[in-house]
Design a protein that fits this description.
The structure holds 2 protein chains of 2 kinds. Chain A is mainly alpha-helical. Chain A is built from 12 helices and no strands. The chains are: A mainly alpha, B mainly alpha. At the A-B interface, helix 5, helix 6 and helix 9 of A face helix 1 and helix 2 of B.
Chain lengths: 409, 103
């Protein structure tokens, strides 16, 4: 194998990783901003711009090292972050193919759930893709399923358990907050309530955006740096190249600014009809759960927390109703995100392997990714959700098939 | 591992309730005091605003205190995010938060 072939592969991995970071941004805009957009606290465009800037700032704030990001779920690195020697032959070709296939699994699952307007976890999509590609490339033993009795680790401890519990905690906190806020302010005029709580909402939503930038951009930075180490062009596991940090921060911020309007609509209008007091309770709960969790080293998905909080604000408001059908669809999406992204990641790896791996395999994988992504964008274009119709009266979730009435009248 | 998880989850719930529900409720108390202070029509949110109540200056003071508490909470939150990004963490062992290297 000539070196130049691996160089092209590592460039492909980097570009695809930035593509994942971009989908991570636009899939998650709604986590922070859906409630502010739904209550009119911020105009839609301003909300996504604010969130984008805060994600950018957040991405730069995080200077801690995330090179070991894959260690939570797969065994392709040692505990220092160096790739295992078994996968670094030929400029890390085996490692690069696993990362590439895993990223493709994550991106395609993110885009599919976005098409359906479902808020699914980008971290689960990334981890699922990596797990699938690892199973395909190394075998079941390559996956780090559980931790030992001394620490929470592995797929079970770092991904599955937090995913089950965090939305429940967020919903509980948000429901308690909403209920008591309504008790306290029930004699206050609705005008003052709306003005006051819209301000509070903007503040809490900004905190969530910032926390998102520090958490999520790091994961892609870690993945790209791992690829560079595997290839052999970077040798430090304690720092990340500046250009990687810059590129990832810009990718997640651009994604956030593009705004996943389909997901924003579901979160802001679909799940519960939300007003400013609920919005503040929900974002306050999200911010607190995210910050408390990272303080305690408890891994979780921003998406699960945000969705749980919004649901909680519907449960806590006296007389409010929750669209449990939508909530059910979301729960299904959460449960299947990891295995489905894993399946796509595994299939992608096999496809690359069938044509002999290496450069032809990598190029084929990327061509398939671009084709599938174009198809999804094409389907989405049939029934667009934009900043103009994101707050329209809820008639149903955006469906891919176009069988329902378009959202835009 | 499960008992570790339950312990962690319990702590997250506790902190989140205090900060995530507590601070918004203090904010709500602030809004309520503000209404009291400015003599904004009380009544229900439906607009039962027949009588304009008298102004209570104390309400404005209370509102200011409430909002200051909320702002302080947000500042602690922000400090946490920034400190965590630099590989440090907040310690509450001195009651007031201090920044210490991550353990």
């Amino acid at each position: 194998m000539a070196v130049s072939e691996q160089l092209i592969i590592v460039i492909l991995v980097t570009v695809v990783a930035l593509g994942f970071d971009f989908t991570n941004g636009f899939h998650d805009t709604g986590n922070a901003m859906a409630t502010s957009i739904a209550t009119g606290a911020l105009p839609p465009k301003i909300a996504v711009a604010l969130s984008a800037v805060l994600n950018l700032v957040g991405a730069f704030l995080s200077v801690t090292v995330a090179v070991t990001v894959t260690n939570a779920v797969v065994n392709i690195q040692d505990s220092n972050g160096d790739p295992l020697p078994a996968y670094t032959a030929d400029h890390g070709q085996a490692l690069l193919m696993i990362i590439l296939a895993g990223l493709v699994g994550g991106i395609l699952w993110n885009l599919s759930t976005w098409l359906l307007g479902l808020p699914s976890s980008s971290s689960h999509a990334l981890f699922g893709g990596l797990i699938g590609a690892t199973v395909a490339g190394i075998g079941w033993g390559g996956v780090h399923w559980t931790g030992d009795s001394t620490k929470l680790d592995g797929v079970l401890g770092k991904v599955v358990l937090p995913a089950v519990v965090s939305p429940v905690i967020a919903a509980l906190v948000s429901a308690v907050g909403t209920f008591l806020i309504f008790r306290v302010t029930r004699r206050v005029s609705s005008g003052l309530n709306d003005r006051g709580f819209r301000l509070g909402q903007i503040g809490t939503a900004s905190l969530v955006s910032l926390a998102h930038g520090t958490n999520d951009a790091q994961k892609t930075m870690g993945v790209i740096t791992l690829a560079l180490i595997g290839y052999g062009s970077w040798h430090h596991t304690t720092s990340i190249p500046l250009w990687v940090k810059l590129a990832c921060a810009l990718a997640i911020a651009t994604g956030t600014y593009v705004g996943g309007w389909r997901v924003i609509r579901t979160l802001g209008k679909g799940l519960v009809e939300i007003e400013a007091r609920q919005g503040m309770a929900a974002e306050g709960a999200s911010a607190a759960v995210i910050l408390a969790s990272s303080q305690l080293g408890f891994a979780l998905s921003t998406t699960h927390v945000a969705t749980g909080s919004i649901l909680g604000s519907g449960i806590g408001k006296p007389g409010a109703s929750v669209r449990w059908g939508i909530a059910g669809r979301m729960v299904v999406a959460w449960v299947i995100t990891l295995p489905m992204a894993g399946l796509v990641g595994a299939l992608t790896w096999w496809i690359g392997d069938v044509v002999g791996g290496g450069l032809p395999g990598a190029v084929l994988i990327v061509v398939i990714l671009v084709a599938a992504a174009s198809f999804i964008f094409f389907r989405a274009h049939h029934q667009p959700v934009t900043s103009d119709n994101v707050n329209d009266e809820w008639q149903g979730a955006p469906s891919a098939g176009g069988t329902r009435q378009p959202v835009a009248a | 591992m499960f008992s570790l998880f339950v312990q962690d989850a319990w702590k997250v719930l506790l902190y989140s309730l205090v900060l995530g529900a507590g601070l918004p409720i203090v904010f709500a108390l602030g809004v309520r005091s503000l209404a009291l202070g400015s003599g904004v029509p009380g009544g229900s949110a439906d607009g039962d605003t027949a009588v304009r109540p008298a102004q209570h200056p104390l309400g404005t003071v209370l509102a200011a205190i409430c909002f200051l508490v909320v702002i302080a909470g947000v500042v602690v939150g922000l400090t946490y995010v920034i400190a965590a990004g630099k590989g440090e963490q907040l310690s509450f062992s001195h009651v007031y938060p201090t920044i210490v290297p991550k353990s």
